[in-house]
Amino acid sequence: MTPDINFGFGLSKSSRINLDNADNEKFRELAAREPDILKCMACGSCAASCSAGNFTELNLRKIILMLTRGAEKETVRQLESCMFCGKCILVCPRGINTRHLIKSIREIYCRPCAEPETGNGI
Amino acid sequence: MIYEGKKRIWSEYQKEIPEDNYFYVRSCIRQNFFPASEKTFLDIVRNRLGKDFFETQHHTTCGGIAYHSDAIPQETVMTIIARQFALMTEAGYKNYACSCITSFGLYTETMETWKLFPELEAKIREILWKTCHKEFRIPENLAHASDIIYKFRNMIAEKAAYRLVNVKTGKPLRVVEHIGCHYAKMFPSRGVGGAEYPYVLAGMIESWGGEVIDYPERRHCCGFGFRQYLVKANRGYSLSNTHKKFESMAPFKPDMIITNCPGCPYFMDRWQYVISELEGKTYGENGYGIPVFTYEEVAGLVLGYDPWDLGLQMHQVAVEPLLDKMGIKYDPAKKYLGENGKYIGKPQMPRFIKCC
User: Fold this and answer.
1) Residue of A2, A5, A7, A11 to mutate, interface with B, max B Cβ within 10 Å
2) Cβ contact B337:B308 at 8 Å
3) ipTM exceeding the 0.90 mark
4) What is the mean pLDDT of residues B93-99?
5) Are A79 and A58 within 8 A, CB to CB?
6) Contact B187, B193 (CB under 8 A)
């Protein structure tokens, strides 16, 4: 609603996530396909060693954290910057195949993109 | 074993609050926000409980607001505080009681700093002597005024004219208690119950018949926070803090809020109006807000003081729904009459939040 009075300040949007309302269906599907995702301890080695992350917002640690909370909108978009170089696999202390994980995330979360309504045959 | 450990930890959070003989200092902002709170406090402790509370007109601000907004350095604040202690020493008192939570936090911080850095205390003593020709003793005991009401809560309950009970249903009123952050979050052992389980207001509520509400954002800041409100452009942070608390407590349907800090009741009271203007949302029953009180005002209501003598007409959120629930008799026609029946003016009514 538009206030009649201009106070010169307003309410900031809350960053709070209500886990009870989070839709975790896709995450469950991801965890079934990539059980290693549950091993992630959010150390951030993948994000620290990421070449693309130096130039873009790509941050796998953050993406995994947000996916567990059912907040996928902004995070999955970041994965478009991934070059699949695989450096993150080399540094992961939990031995997670992060490259394969990223591929699975894109397949599951970007499904409508993978199957466009009007295919152009390419 | 674990129980013993818990008992030991809990004992560390129990505070020694002297019975009597206090040097009392007022807050610089509370007298504007809630003008009768400190007067009521002194009336209760002096005339109802028969205690000795001394105050002097030479007392000044503690400098807390300037300090917390980075306008003055710590040494300046310490010198101001040293001067207050000198006033206490000159008056012959050893127990220091302050009305303000910011001051309480600052006094605690200063005394702790001097304990760890005696050379700094020596420097401040020298500065005070050079500037004011005064010397001071550090108080043997530092109490916040809410500690004192907490200590005498059962004596107040014995003299109660009204209780925190809904007279229509006979059920205890549902009360949100909000502790000022600088009371126990900075130095947990200096507050009753520490930072995790502050009991100072909860104890009063239980003694006076109410029911304490536990809600997710119970220990969240009220939104006061100095830098958040001093600059107009930042006030959205303050407002958002308060909004978060109200969203969290609203499902528990509180009848009232009690606070022990100068800023908390002010912001939780006034921001309810701003939220209603911005969002069209109110948190009380039937379009009203949730009334917010200082602990002195609640003690005054329990003891049977006239609501308008307690300055409750200065609140943004109407207090009448709570007065009706408690069965307190009041004259609506006298709401906007000040001393000697002088009309003090009636504020314009807001769009959404209902005011009587």
Assistant:
1) A11
2) yes
3) no
4) 96
5) yes
6) no
On chain A, the residues whose CB falls within 8 A of the CB of B244 are 14, 16
Domains of chain A: 24-112 (1.10.1060.10)
CB A69 within 8 A of CB A17: yes
pLDDT tens profile B25-78: 999 989 888 989 999 999 999 999 999 999 999 999 999 999 998 899 999 999
Average pLDDT over residues B281-285: 94
Interface touch A11/B278, C-beta < 8 Å: yes
Under DSSP, is residue B113 helix (H, G, I), strand (E, B) or coil?
helix
Which of B239, B277, B279 lies at the smallest CB-CB distance from A9?
Answer: B239
What's the start-to-end Cα distance of chain B, in Å? 56
pTM over 0.80? The answer is yes
Burial B291-311 (b: 16+ CB within 10 A, else e): bbbbbbbbbbbbbebebbebb
| Shortest CA gap B219–chain A (Å) | 16
Which segments in chain A show pLDDT lower than 70? 1-3, 112-122
Domains of chain B, each with CATH number or no CATH: 10-145 (1.20.1050.140), 153-341 (3.40.50.11810)
